[in-house]
């Protein structure tokens, strides 16, 4: 038996141990994994754990804990050790979960239909109608195919005797399936040998079935089905999972503002106009979905959605009103209900539960408080479980008073000591610890009356030892769940039970596969909301690159020690201040120290009016909402960018290095945009955003540069070329030190320079014409008007000492100001024509 890794593992607990038998020996299905871990050095084990953390950070997997200082960027946490379930045990669990899903689906059909369970006394009416989860407007709504519960999740706990018990049912928009797949993909990188050698079952079949079921049941009337994933938005705690699922399933990720009901049908507001939506996979709570008939104060829902579902014009998964089954008080009634509706004995028992709305149950709860867990009877109450044995003194008195005052609002559950499983110490030392765990399992309807259970799941881990609360909101972590295959008969084909995936799900997670009978379309449905975020993603990517380049160039001139460089710093400082970068007050020549401090603040200070940190956050915010439109490599590059800048940058050299990294990352994003993205309308708006921002930046830069005296202009020509990313082009083309007229031609008049103003005019004309031909409604004269003004100018009129120089400079300054204001006007016009207003708009100033 292995000793080195297990020697510090606590044993002798009164809880069931997932890894060890009562006599301290390894359970058979754990042996292969522990043997492999024993062969890893402490350093290698730490490296594998670091790979998991790095993969989570790189993939941008987050779970937003409310009131957490890390906000929307709080990383998901995954332990290196999985929870392992044997093939024999899984056979019982999967059958039991599928049966329970069928029972609950039948209960929903009855509660919103004939209500026989109520009339026969199998369910107390007060338990159903006394909660907000029952939606009266959904009475008699018949979902397509009679399926109310398209996806289902169940939380399971194992007691000390090894038996599994149901803790809770998740029936509204069950979360966690996407996290389970992400966990598996990360573990496939960190522990590929163990996944292969242990023949762990793959997970992708669950997602294939989910997509196929929605496609099959969607009321299309012969049309190609459009299925969307409805999210409350980026501030929801599981938004990261919503974006991942949308990308995996190939569904547009939409918010309520992206959908509208016209003629009792649901439509997606796309850049190409309205497209009918046939099915909605929702991750929004029931009552928020329709402010017209459900919750009137909801700003997230779609007015008229309930009526569209009532008429059978749209499939909603899960059906509206399914949240009524999340009441823990229902558990005690389900065994009899299963016998009545299915004629089957319920295979998987729930933790003994008592609804305090019945007087005998309340009396029992008060008499046995120390052995019970008090939970809200209805999910809408949002209260945390209270363990009776932990409540003493005045807190206990208040709890009893609450139970007696509102007994119908509470349920009591038997306190089950959760099983424990090994976790790797976070301190980096080579040892295992035990933590209590709870298993969440997922099932999906197959559209034929049965349910397919995901051969895996999501294990949630308590943050501290012997703690029975494993909520992710309370700081819990997660484990991948490995379901082992049944042993292959020795005489049979070695691959008889193998689907060729090696159980590692290491391939591309995109499972989109349209049935052969469907017409294949080349167009992409880009919502107006997504189009707007792609537009601003392009603008912010360009904006942060421009700012970083200007700051880096200016910092270089503060450190080279050349007298001519110091002589131009007053001019450069003034231009920077005109660009919005806060400069020191000393005029006309700021000190080097003061200038460097101001430039440092423009990199790291989140409170500065203009800073790289702020621009990176805005870029990330826009990109975060269009993750499903980005390749994995593109998202990895974006996800790393906010971490490039940190407050510990206290030297000019370090700041310059970071600015270089930011510029490289922005160039990487530009490459992804050109190489990874389909040339659809969303891409067009991304490119328009980039060129609008570059045009405005160059025009503002040149407008202020032209206000310098000719002598000061000549001194700062190299700075201007480097700030405009054109110094190398100039040197290759002219082979001499910068001179005014060649610099002016390169940066303003040259249509071949991608960092020149004329080039921006030309490209904006090109992309706007493409958008107009694809989408219509557009009549934009700004780029062509600006080009006509520029073409009317003569380069020789700008020569220093020329009689026409002053007049030419004034005309060019006027053109630059027109370009800056034109960028703002063009941005507003695009928003008015094509974009849906955001529910929480980000700053969009030019």
Account of the 3D structure:
This is Circularly permuted type 2 ATP-grasp protein. InterPro entries: ATP-dep_Glu-Cys_Ligase-2, CP_ATPgrasp_2, DUF403. The protein has 846 residues and is an alpha+beta fold. It has four domains: 365 residues, no CATH class; 62 residues, Dna Ligase, domain 1 (2-Layer Sandwich); 152 residues, no CATH class; 160 residues, no CATH class. Strands 1, 2, 3, 15, 16, 17, 18 and 19 form an eight-stranded mixed β-sheet that branches. It has a four-stranded parallel β-sheet with strand order 5-4-9-10. Strands 11-14-12-13 form a four-stranded antiparallel β-sheet, covered by helices on one side. α2 packs across α6 and α14 packs antiparallel against α15. The chain is elongated. The C terminus is likely disordered.
How would you sum up this structure in a few lines?
With 846 residues, the chain is α+β, with helices and mostly antiparallel strands.
How are the elements arranged and paired?
Blueprint: H1 31-38, H2 42-59, E1 83-85, H3 87-111, H4 116-119, H5 125-129, E2 151-158, E3 164-170, H6 177-190, H7 192-197, H8 204-217, E4 227-230, H9 239-249, E5 253-254, E6 259-262, E7 265-270, E8 273-276, E9 279-282, H10 305-310, E10 315-317, H11 334-341, E11 353-355, H12 359-367, E12 372-376, E13 386-387, H13 393-405, E14 410-414, E15 420-424, E16 432-445, E17 451-453, E18 458-461, E19 477-483, H14 528-559, H15 563-578, H16 592-604, H17 612-624, H18 632-640, H19 652-675, H20 681-705, H21 710-715, H22 717-723, H23 727-734, H24 740-749, H25 757-775, H26 782-791, H27 805-834
Parallel strand pairs: 1-19, 4-5, 4-9, 9-10
Antiparallel strand pairs: 2-3, 2-16, 6-7, 7-8, 11-14, 12-13, 12-14, 15-16, 16-17, 16-18, 18-19
